[in-house]
Amino acid sequence: MANRLDEILSHSLLAALARKETADIAAMERQANARTARGFRANLRRVAESGPAVIAECKKASPSKGVIRQQYDPASFARAFEAGGAAAISVLTDEEFFQGSLSHLEAVSAAVNIPVLRKDFIVDPFQVLEAKAAGADAILLIVAAHKNEDLVELAAEAHRWGLDILCETHDREEIERALALGFDTIGVNSRNLKTLTVDPQTLVEMVSYLPENVIRVAESGIAHAEDIERLMAAGYDAFLIGETLMRQPDPGATLALLLDRQYVSEV
């Protein structure tokens, strides 16, 4: 099977460089400077002190599943997730493979009070500026996508703009790299980004390599309250949940049910 990660990264870089060529950098920097980040990591930590911190994901499509939700209003879903108890919102902004956009990020950021993560394949510092200007409070950096020096460069750019980082890993070697580079919010993704297959056992096997001083985020393959309970017992603080929620008639109500919370629909 072809390496899907390399395919997506190549396209992401070309698309980012094309946008950069026509961007008004000065205007974007003014917009970025006018925004104050809402503290993605701090809010995950605060919520995790009393229960699971869920990063609820606005996701229209994926390379492995195709279109997940035909009727897609990310701002409406984000408000519903906030009402359902989310600690943060993740927004897919990749256009080619996930049918996302930066306009979705802008709409979601304006619609909620909780922090927002730009979920994309960040391969160029320009994308970090894009994220802040569009209203993100954090970005995703994928260890498997970069050499260490590139991760350091992108992390420095994120910190320059006051953005937090969710550092995504898939195995022990990647976790060790993330820790050595000083990342303090580390996700373990049970989805193999080369084949797009999911193995939930990865989450259980990898959590022991994450020290208690980092925020430990479980990603992919989380569908039931029992999954959250099991992974909390294993040591995770936060949970990124997307497809499970987006396939339901009322994603906000589904999240509230997972968290055993009362819910009033915002959709």
Q: How many β-strand stretches? A: 10
Radius of gyration: 17 Å
Shape annotation:
globular
Reading off the top of the CATH hierarchy, the class is best stated as Alpha Beta
Q: Which parts are unreliable, with pLDDT below 50 for 5 consecutive residues or more? A: none
The CATH superfamily is known as Aldolase class I
Distance between the termini: 40 Å
Instruction: Kindly identify the CATH topology.
Output: TIM Barrel
Major sheet: size, sense and barrel closure?
A: 8 strands, parallel, barrel
How many domains comprise the coordinates? 1
Q: What is the N-to-C succession of helices and strands?
A: HHHEEEHEHEHEHEHEHEHEHH
* CATH architecture identity: Alpha-Beta Barrel
Mean pLDDT value: 95
Helix content range: 40-55%
Record the strand order, biggest sheet. Answer: 1-4-5-6-7-8-9-10
Q: What's the total helix number?
A: 12
Strand content is: 15-25%
Report the structural category: alpha/beta
Protein name: Indole-3-glycerol phosphate synthase
Catalytic activity: 1-(2-carboxyphenylamino)-1-deoxy-D-ribulose 5-phosphate + H(+) = (1S,2R)-1-C-(indol-3-yl)glycerol 3-phosphate + CO2 + H2O
InterPro entries: Aldolase_TIM (IPR013785), Indole-3-glycerol_P_synth (IPR045186), Indole-3-glycerol_P_synth_dom (IPR013798), Indole-3-GlycerolPSynthase_CS (IPR001468), RibuloseP-bd_barrel (IPR011060)
Keywords: Amino-acid biosynthesis, Aromatic amino acid biosynthesis, Decarboxylase, Lyase, Tryptophan biosynthesis
